[in-house]
Write a structure and sequence with these properties.
Shape: globular
Structural class: alpha+beta
Distance between the termini: 16 Å
Strand order of the largest sheet: 2-3-1-4
Largest sheet: 4 strands, antiparallel
Strand content: 25-35%
Number of strands: 4
């Protein structure tokens, strides 16, 4: 499943890279592309993994980025 997540507080490519790394470390995530200029994170993940969406949101929040949707 592919999901677009809007975020606040991701202002530069360095922060976007940290978000990419954190989200890619979540089990079941196939790919992640964080885009600071669009304030969004595009994640492709296996929706059959229990709790994965919460884990992705937690990974983003752990960098200090606010998940909006």
């Amino acid at each position: 499943m592919q999901k677009k997540i809007y975020v606040a507080g991701m202002f530069d490519d360095d922060t976007a890279g940290k978000v990419d790394t954190a989200v890619k470390s979540v089990a079941g995530v196939a790919s992640c592309t964080a885009n600071a200029s669009k304030a969004q994170v595009l994640v492709d993940f296996d929706e059959s993994v229990g709790g994965i969406e919460d884990a992705i949101n937690s990974a983003i929040s752990s960098i200090g980025i606010e998940v909006l949707s």
